[in-house]
Design a protein that fits this description.
The complex is a heterodimer of chains A (about 400) and B (about 325). Chain A is of the alpha/beta class and about 400 residues long. Helix content of chain A is about 30%, strand content about 25%. Classes of the chains: A alpha/beta (about 400), B alpha/beta (about 325).
Chain lengths: ~400, ~325
C-alpha cells in the first residue's frame, strides 16, 4: 500500500481522551484510531506502550531549526517575523514557509509593521495571500497606541490574529531583568513586572474597541494573567502563551549572571511563576511554546546585559511540559491541547489533534524515559538552555510528519 | 601583623582566606573580611614610614586592566603593587583591541597567555569580572564591575571605620545618595551588615533599588530621618548625567534635598564620621565645608586605607603561587 503506516501498541491522545491501540495512516491522513485491522504491506511501528500524540505546534519560534524541532516532536512551527531579516514581503513569507519542508512545516507570521519599527503597516494582506497565518509585532511591543489600534483593526478585518509582545517599552527601558532581590544584588538594570500588565491592559482595550483577535506571545505575571482572565470572561477574542522557562524558573535563576537565563520577557518573581502555573490549570493560558531562539557563544558568552535574550527550547518543550501532567496540574489531553490543539485552532493550521481524516502529524512519546538536558548535547543550532543539567522524564521516540517517520 | 592565625581543622592547617579571586564581598565570611582588614594594618604602618617598600611580590606581574575610566582606583592598585615589589602593567583600554571588537573572553585569554600573576579588572558591565575570572589561571581582583560590586572599596571603608570608631558591630551606617547605580553601596551593604553594623540606605526613591530591604538594610527617602543618630554617614557620588531630570530634577534640587551640610549632619550622632568614595561633586551631594572638616571627614583617610587594603589583597591572593607555607 502506498504511503501507509500503522503505529500500534500504544495509547493514543485524542480530544476525547486516551484510546488504547494505535493510529493507521493513509495518504498522509489519519485513517483509523484505536483498534483497526492492519492492511497488508504497510510499514509498522510498534509504540511499545508509549503515548501516540499529535505532533507539536510550536507558536512563536525565532529560528527554523529542523534538528531541534524533530528531536522535540514539533511538526509545525509558527515563525516570528524577526528571527533575522524582518518578514515583511510576500517573497520572504513564501521563502520561510518552504524552509522547513518536508520534515517540519513552517507557518510564518507577517511583520505587523515595516521593518518591525512599529510605525507603518506592512503589506499584511499580500503576505496573508502568500501564506502568513497571522501578524506579529516581533520582539518589541508597538509603542504608538494609534499604530496598534490601526493594526488590530486592519489585521482583524482580514481574519488574522495579531501576536503581540506584552511589555511596555517605556517602563522597561534598558532593563534586562525584573525588579527584585536578584536584580538588586547583581546590580542589573531591572523593570517592574507591571510593564507586562500595562501592555496587556492597553492592547485589551484596543481589542475591545476593534473586536480583532489578539494573541500575547507570552504572559508571565499574575497581573497580566488576571487581565487576560477577565477579558476572556467578557468574551473578548484573546489568547496567550507561555514558555516552560517561565513556568519552572524564577528570576533567581539569573544568579551568577547566567546569560542562558536572560529571556524576553525576563524571568519573574516566584509569586508570578506560581500564578502562571495556576493560569495553566484554570485555562487562562491557551498554549505552551518553546520560544526557540538558539544563540551561540558569541551572543551569550558576554556580560549579562550585553548578551542576547532567548533560549533554545524546542527539544525540551515536551519533556518540561510533561512535568505539569506528572504534578497532577493537568491531564494529558489538556497538555496536548496546549502544545498542539490550541495553536492549530488559533492560527487556522492543519493538524493539532488526532481524529480520522486529520493530518497525520504524530509523535510517539515514552513518558517515563529519563534523560538529562545538557547544553552541549543538544540537537539545536545552539545549546543556550537555562535548564542545563536538569534531569527530566519523557522523550520523543519518533516524530511522524504527514505520515512519514522523520529520521 | 595578622590577628587571625592559620587555623587547624582536622589536623590540617587551613589558611584563613580560601578564595582564588576577589570578585565581591558576596561569598566572603565575616571572619574572612576581618582577616583582610587585619592584614591591611601592617601596610598602613609601612605606608606611613619613609621606606615604603616590601619585596614579597618581586618577580610577579600585576596587570591592571581597566575597561572603564578610573584615576584613583587605578593609581591605588598601581602603588599597592609597586610597594610590594611587583611588576605593574596598566592596560590602557582606549588603545586596546577591545575597541576593535575583541570579545571580553578573548581579552581574558590574551591576558592569561601573558602569564600575569594577578589581574585587576574594572568594567562597566555587571558580571564582567566574573566572566574573565572564569577564564584565567591567576587571581583576579574586581576593581568595580557595573553596578554590581567594588569589594576593595568596601574593605577600605570598613578599615577606615574600624580605625576611627574602634569597631563596626553595632554602629549605625547611613549610605546616602545614588544607591541604585552604585557598586560601592552594594559591596558596603554586604560587608557592613556581615560585620554587624546596622545599615540604612537613604536617597530619592528614583535612586533606591527595589527590594533593597532584602539585603538587610532599612530604606529611607527622608534624608533627615535617615541621618538621625547615624554613627557613619557615607555619601555616594551622583553622576552628572543623572542630575538632568532623568533621576533627579537638577543638581541644586538634589543638594537642597539630599546634600550633606553641617546643618544636616547635626541630625547624626555628635561624633558621626563622614565618608565619600570620591570623586566628589562638591556642592551637590556634599558641601565643601563638610568634606573639608578634618574633625568629621574621613575622606582622605579612605584614600590612604585604599592602598593598604589593596596591598593586603594582592599579598593574600598570591600566597598560594608564591609558596607561602600553609597556603
Amino acid at each position: 500500500m502506498v504511503n501507509a503506516l500503522a503505529v500500534t501498541g500504544g495509547r493514543v491522545v485524542t480530544p476525547e481522551g486516551l484510546i488504547e491501540g494505535g493510529v493507521l495512516v493513509q495518504d498522509g491522513r489519519v485513517a483509523a484510531i484505536g483498534s483497526f485491522d492492519c492492511p497488508a504491506n504497510v510499514e509498522r511501528i510498534d509504540a511499545r506502550g508509549a503515548i501516540i500524540a499529535p505532533g507539536l505546534i510550536d507558536t512563536g519560534v525565532f529560528a527554523i531549526d529542523r534538528p531541534a524541532f524533530v528531536a522535540g516532536g514539533i511538526t509545525r512551527a509558527v515563525l516570528m517575523p524577526d528571527g533575522g531579516q524582518p518578514i515583511e514581503t510576500v517573497a520572504l513569507v513564501q521563502h520561510a514557509a518552504a524552509a522547513g519542508k518536508p520534515k517540519v512545516w513552517v507557518h510564518p507570521l507577517a511583520a505587523a509593521t515595516r521593518g518591525l519599527k512599529g510605525q507603518e503597516l506592512a503589506e499584511i494582506g499580500l503576505m496573508q495571500m502568500g501564506g502568513a497565518c497571522g501578524v506579529a509585532t516581533g520582539r518589541q511591543w508597538i509603542a504608538d497606541t494609534g499604530v496598534m489600534h490601526r493594526l488590530l483593526a486592519y489585521a482583524g478585518s482580514l481574519g488574522l490574529r495579531t501576536v503581540s509582545h506584552a511589555e511596555d517599552g517605556g517602563l522597561v527601558g534598558d532593563a534586562v531583568m525584573t525588579d527584585g532581590e536578584t536584580a538588586t544584588r547583581l546590580g542589573l538594570a531591572a523593570a517592574p513586572a507591571e510593564a507586562e500588565a500595562l501592555a496587556v491592559a492597553r492592547d485589551l482595550l484596543l481589542v475591545e474597541a476593534t473586536g480583532a483577535p489578539i494573541h500575547f506571545r507570552q504572559v508571565t505575571t499574575a497581573r497580566g494573567l488576571d487581565l487576560v482572565r477577565a477579558a476572556k470572561a467578557k468574551g473578548l477574542p484573546v489568547s496567550c502563551g507561555i514558555t516552560p522557562a517561565h513556568l519552572f524558573l524564577a528570576d533567581s535563576a539569573v544568579t551568577g549572571f547566567r546569560t542562558f537565563a536572560r529571556l524576553s520577557p525576563p524571568l519573574r518573581a516566584e509569586d508570578d511563576r506560581r500564578a502562571c502555573l495556576a493560569a495553566i490549570a484554570d485555562g487562562t493560558i491557551d498554549l505552551i511554546c518553546s520560544g526557540h531562539d538558539p544563540q551561540g557563544a558569541e551572543a551569550k558568552r558576554l556580560p549579562f546585559a550585553d548578551a542576547e535574550p532567548g533560549m533554545a527550547g524546542a527539544e525540551t518543550l515536551l519533556a518540561l511540559s510533561l512535568t505539569l501532567v506528572r504534578d497532577g496540574l493537568i491531564g494529558l489531553e489538556r497538555l496536548f491541547d496546549l502544545l498542539a490543539g490550541a495553536p492549530a485552532r488559533l492560527f487556522g493550521l492543519p493538524g493539532g489533534s488526532l481524529a480520522v481524516g486529520a493530518e497525520a502529524d504524530l509523535v510517539i512519546v515514552d513518558m517515563d524515559a529519563p534523560w538529562r538536558i545538557e547544553s552541549d548535547m543538544m540537537a539545536a543550532a545552539a545549546g543556550n538552555t537555562p535548564f542545563d543539567g536538569l534531569p527530566v522524564q519523557g522523550r520523543v521516540v519518533q516524530t511522524i510528519k504527514g505520515g512519514v517517520p522523520i529520521r | 601583623m595578622s590577628n587571625s592565625p592559620t587555623r587547624s581543622v582536622d589536623g590540617r592547617e587551613v589558611h584563613p582566606f580560601p578564595h582564588r579571586h576577589l570578585i565581591g564581598i558576596a561569598g566572603l565570611q565575616p571572619h574572612e573580611i576581618a582577616f583582610l582588614l587585619d592584614e591591611a594594618e601592617q601596610w598602613v604602618q609601612l605606608n606611613r614610614g619613609t621606606a615604603k617598600h616590601d619585596d614579597r611580590l618581586a618577580g610577579l606581574t600585576l596587570i591592571n586592566a581597566f575597561f572603564e575610566n578610573s584615576t584613583r582606583t587605578l593609581l591605588s592598585f598601581e602603588i599597592a603593587g609597586k610597594r610590594l615589589g611587583a611588576d605593574v602593567v596598566n592596560m590602557a583600554v582606549a588603545a586596546s583591541s577591545v575597541k576593535k571588537g575583541e570579545t571580553l573572553i578573548d581579552t581574558a585569554v590574551t591576558l592569561n597567555a601573558m602569564r600575569a600573576d594577578m589581574i585587576v579588572i574594572r568594567h562597566e558591565a555587571s558580571g564582567a569580572v566574573q566572566l574573565i575570572a572564569d577564564k584565567v589561571d591567576c587571581p583576579v581582583l574586581n576593581a568595580g564591575d557595573g553596578r554590581h560590586e567594588h569589594p576593595t572599596q568596601a574593605l577600605l571603608d570598613a578599615l577606615t571605620i574600624r580605625r576611627r570608631k574602634g569597631r563596626i558591630a553595632g554602629l549605625i551606617v547611613a549610605i546616602c545618595g545614588d544607591v541604585l547605580h552604585s557598586r560601592v553601596a552594594r559591596s558596603n551593604i554586604l560587608s557592613l551588615t556581615a560585620l554587624g553594623a546596622e545599615v540604612r540606605v537613604v536617597g530619592p526613591p528614583t535612586l533606591l533599588p527595589p527590594a533593597i530591604e532584602r539585603m538587610g538594610v532599612t530604606r529611607f527617602t527622608d534624608f533627615d530621618a535617615g541621618l538621625d543618630g547615624a554613627d557613619v554617614v557615607m555619601m555616594l557620588r551622583l553622576q552628572r548625567e543623572r542630575m538632568a531630570g532623568g533621576f533627579v530634577p537638577s543638581p541644586r534640587e538634589y543638594h537642597a534635598l539630599y546634600g550633606l551640610t553641617h546643618e544636616r549632619l547635626a541630625r547624626a550622632a555628635p561624633d558621626a564620621l563622614v565618608m565619600h568614595p570620591g570623586p566628589m561633586n562638591r556642592g551637590v551631594e556634599i558641601a565643601s565645608a563638610v568634606a573639608d572638616d578634618l574633625e568629621r571627614s574621613a575622606i582622605t583617610e579612605q584614600v590612604e586605607m585604599g592602598v593598604a587594603v589593596r596591598m593586603a589583597c594582592l599579598d593574600v591572593l598570591t600566597r598560594g603561587r608564591r609558596g607561602v607555607a600553609g597556603w
